[in-house]
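Field reference: sequence -> structure
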Amino acid sequence: MADRKLRLKYHCVEVIAGAGACEVARSLKDLRLLSAEAPLLPLKTCDRPADCKCIYRHFEDRRKGPRRQNEQARVSYAYKGTERRKRHGRRETDYE
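Structure field:
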């Protein structure tokens, strides 16, 4: 049995406009499209289909950055209450 790649539900592509690309290809810059919905290359409206150098860049997901606030590098909130724990550590040096 041949190895098959697992098809991801939200696999997407981004059109990377090649040198001398048409205006439509350049307008798709930084736009991620689901693979099943992505236009075929060269684009139908391309005015230079024989010389088209556009390619796809593949991604596992459409998201570009962190999804949630807590996935960001810094935490924007902190606990404002008073510390109620009696002991601050397990080492003997923690109580000096």
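Note: Residues 9-64 form one domain.
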